[in-house]
Amino acid sequence: MRSHTHFASFAELAAHLDKLGMFRMRPELGKLREVLGRLALPKPLAVAQVAGTNGKGSTATFLAALAQAHGLRTGLFTSPHFVSFRERIRINGVPVSEAAILAPANAVMAAGGETLTYFEFVTALAAYIFSAGISASVADPLAPAESLAPVDVAVMETGLGGAWDAVTALPADALAYTPIGLDHCRVLGDTVTAIATDKAGAIRGGKPVFSAAQPAEALAALKSIAAERGSPFFLAGERESLPDPIRDGAIPLGLAGEHQYTNAGLALAVWRHLARENGWDVSEEKESRALATAFIPGRLQYVPASEAHGHPALLLDGAHNGHGMAALGKNLAAKGVAPAAVIFACLEDKNPAEMAAHLRVLATGPVFVPPIQGNPRALEPEQLARAIGLAAVPATSMADALARAREHVAAYMPVEAAAHPERHPVLICGSLYMLGDFFALRPDCLEPPTQKDCKP
């Protein structure tokens, strides 16, 4: 493989990815497999793939936290990102630096990376970094020496579907399925059976499959293909399987919401399997600590009011389909949260009518509808506001929506919002891509509060 510098700077790499377009996908993995074959990457000790419809990012985050808490160097690949694509590739919870990512990116290009789609390229980049490490010549000079090493455990979140998702081109020792529902219907099919069958295409022959509770049609599809491929199948995700302090609520999960107990239980089942297979010691105390400190932005994430940034108290959630919106509603009701207002936007292929129906239950106050910047799949604010009805108002940007929400809270709920901001926040939901517009304004909120407090 010849050596060549395709990217002299991170800006050049980012420009190349922008040119590819984030939403292009093709139903074959041949080009990616060719590139991976040329790279000839060694496999980490353990690789787990996380697929499903809702909860993939949370489950992957819990699983990575469990491995890291036991002293294993852990790579985590998730999507989408909020501000920089480097967020997709983390080692021990830290995104790979701009300086460190260049040599791996050039190696992927030298192996034929110019033929890859956006997601294929970033997947190959993550695989290279996790498997081969980072060259000392381009690594962040302030990074510790151990940051140059390959990882012990790689946790890879599926992007879309399963059969033709780029992550499926990589080897995997275990596969986890979060709850499956209707989503990406134009690509995967318009029934739960069709969608589950596509996602089941990720099952590797002989490798175990762990699944959360599923609709009957999805469970049948997963079990059928697992049986065809000789892959042991296990149901997982029960709250009863969690360490006692987590299960009983004495120690809260790091990610809020009742549904997160399912995600945590699923991650725990996969972790314990990988530990058994590799002879790693397991500690319930370390498991509890990992589950209690796991963090991923935009999952029922509370952000205090900020005079400096000009917004009231906020609650951010990545609910982006009917299933997610229903779970969000249940969690708000269980916690007695009544949003003072909602900032909402969604993509046109996410069944806006169904999402609007859930939103009408959540929103007792106004709904401000901003555009999603730079996303061709986003519904126009005026069109979405008409579909929502109620007191939905188009906004010109996320900053405009935040300003309008602040004015509403100050005018109509000053006492309640001041006395109980956590019970009457402004809810931001509907799209992870829209949350990216918020995080562009508050990038400090991308980090765990214990590390980089998202404060007023």
TrEMBL record:
- Keywords for the protein's UniProt record, in alphabetical order: ATP-binding, Ligase, Magnesium, Metal-binding, Nucleotide-binding
Note whether Glycosyltransferase occurs among the keywords: no
Gene Ontology cellular component list: cytoplasm
The reactions it catalyses are: (6S)-5,6,7,8-tetrahydrofolyl-(gamma-L-Glu)(n) + L-glutamate + ATP = (6S)-5,6,7,8-tetrahydrofolyl-(gamma-L-Glu)(n+1) + ADP + phosphate + H(+)
Tell me which EC number(s) this protein carries: 6.3.2.17
Q: Which Pfam families match?
A: Mur_ligase_C
Q: Which residues form the Mur ligase C-terminal domain?
A: 298-409
- The answer to whether keyword Cytoplasm applies is no
- Taxonomy, superkingdom: Bacteria
- GO molecular function: any one? dihydrofolate synthase activity
Q: Which family does it belong to?
A: Belongs to the folylpolyglutamate synthase family.
Which NCBIfam families does the protein's record reference? folC (TIGR01499)
Protein name as it appears in the record = tetrahydrofolate synthase
Q: What organism does the record attribute this protein to?
A: uncultured delta proteobacterium
Organism lineage string:
Bacteria, Deltaproteobacteria, environmental samples
- Gene from which this protein is expressed: folC
